Amino acid sequence: MSQPFRTPYPGYDVLDKWDSPSFDDQTREVLRARxxxxxxxxxxxxxxxxxxALCAVVIPQRRPEPVPIAPFIDAALHAGRxxxxxxxxxxxxxxxxxxxxxxxxxxxxxxFDGRGFCELVRPKQARLLRSIDRGDCRAPEAWQEMPPQKFxxxxxxxxxxxxxYSAPAAMSEIGYGGPASPRGYVRLKVGxxxxxxxxxxxxxxxx
Amino acid sequence: MTQDAPRNDRxxxxxxxxxxxxxxxxxxxxxxxxxxxPVDFVxxxxxxxxxxxxxxxxxxxxSVVLFDAGPFFQPRRDFASDxxxxxxxxxxxxxxxxxxxxxxxGANNSGRAVGGSSVHFQMVSLRFRPEWFKARSKLGYxxxxxxxxxxxxxxxxxxxxxxxxxxxxxxxxxxDRGRYPYREHEVNEAGLVxxxxxxxxxxxxxxxxxxxxxxxxxxxPPCAYRGMCKIGCSINAKQSMLITxxxxxxxxxxxxxxxxxxxxxxxxxxxxxTGVSYYRDGKWRFQKAENVVAAGYSIETPRLLLNxxxxxxxxGLGNADGLVGRNLMVHANDAVWGEFDEEIRWYKGPPSMAxxxxxxxxxxxxxxxxxxxxxxxSQGPLPGDFAGxxxxxxxMFGDDLLEAMGRYNRMAGLKMVGESMPQVDNxxxxxxxxxxxxxxxxxxxxSFCDNDxxxxxxxxxxxxxxxxxxxxxxxxxxxxxxxLMGGCPMGDDPETSVTDDMGRVWNVDNLWICDxxxxxxxGGVNPAMTILANAARIADRIIDARFD
Lengths: 207, 548
Description:
By secondary structure, chain A is mainly alpha-helical. Chain A has helices at 25-34, 45-58, 70-79, 93-111, 122-134, 148-164, 168-174, and one strand at residues 85-87. Chain A has one domain (14-206). Chain A is built from seven helices and one strand, in the order αααβαααα. Chain B has a single domain (9-547), classed as FAD/NAD(P)-binding domain (3-Layer(bba) Sandwich).
């Protein structure tokens, strides 16, 4: 089992630069608008709860105010906003999500005595997702020809992580510089950091 | 599907004015042309092909209307330091992607804005190797271009000068190209990883010639090394079409129509083009033209020609031989990633500051088991982009993913731009379903051939060696594609090409193509400079023909 992640950059917060030249008005506006996540409008309450459970397995957040992820996926589905690519093996994005969520729940019920995904403890949820990623499915009919791994990686994982890693909290925990306009960076070489960057991080393998 | 971008949903180039791209607010005067009187040229698509052509034709005194399906942005006001917000730069309408190796579209290779993909490209500004223009005759693979490399070389000079490409004094590969207009950028640590590896393996490397200025130019400040080139440059250091050739075109009297989706090229009883039907501001409209140029890149250009069928052109325009949309190419974009003891902080500076073109020129190396070539560059993906790469290639999630992303600052990568062979079955066709305007969607079918796979395998192996030689640990490889080329190749023979050597569609003498879809082969370098140079060349050919 993997250990709970500990950030190499404790105490660093890109939002401390909010009033600095690293933030421009348009970026502040975008981040401000995202503080209040959009209301649920596309998925039904059960589907939404399942999506939230999936987000929590994919990105375990131990912070008091977790970065909201599910509401933004729901909002994109509501708006019909896609990615520009529909693989021929995949149904249109909305159908793919509805089908995928239902199939994941069906996989949970088939593997764990009729219990739905949300009723499982975290390690079992994770194990189930790994089986799905391997294509090791117990409810193949629920996928209705949609390739499980393609849904899991190309839609579910990808959209969750792209939303999470655009959030300032996620940028901070990996020591990324965050918004940088108009001020960018000056010191580009190893061992050099600008005063407005994260201080050097510490990793267990280097302790 | 709707483009959910409320602030960008109304045309901005209207009422005799266009946005001033150098200001947060403000406009510049723009000439407008009546719809019912024919303009000399309608150009469909304001990317690397269309913008250069529009500027040069307008400067030669022709009346030009330049259409783009996307918005007319003002970078200093509209471009946020935010990956998700900046998805508004991409073509997000679905295309259907099929074949054994279906390609990812959208953010990966398709822009939808005035300026096209040059608004979000990573600014790598390389030239073709001369022999590639005669790949079939000189190197025994692919197709020949109907153009002499020396002519292209002159046009590379022209566009590099216009865009103030910042590059090294001496470039290690190919014939002498003189000095780049602007000095090279300081190479970031991610680039120095490539440099160290190259020196350890005994191959050349170079600071990448980049399309962002290393010193002030006109109204552009020097690059501030924000590292967000792929999501749009908010300070206007990047010399995209949006801030270079498009303003030049407007100043010379061209009109730009933004948020104008051209659905059909109309043709008359004689089979010649009469103008275009386009959707803008809530309705379909028609613009009359003496000449029409499709410049929508390798998917939208074939789609437009195919969608313009008539009784006289039942298979679409220029498609009597069924060649439109075929010979579509991508670049293999396989990568090797490694972890370092020290913090590289690859987010600083343009993503690809160092390059190695060794395998574009090493014909006689005994390990070379493929036709064509590849270059590779250092990398600096933004966090969301890199997390997407990690998960889609490994399926990783949970604490494993958080842990891997926790090493973001210690990562470096090498990513190839690998040539793939033109194949007739890699193609754009029309899908059965339609978009919100009722236009059939594009379907893209793509499969690599054995040679492509050998080239990719060779590249991954070599980049892994280099990464290890540079000190990288825990390497992992990913596979993807980048760029689009071909689909409507130009040539000398009407039976095997869609246009002649100046982009004129065979058998429709006032219909032209001017974009990356003309490329008969893709080469092993990023295509932007070649598309630009070819567009500059076509412009001069058109001007010469007109005033002779």
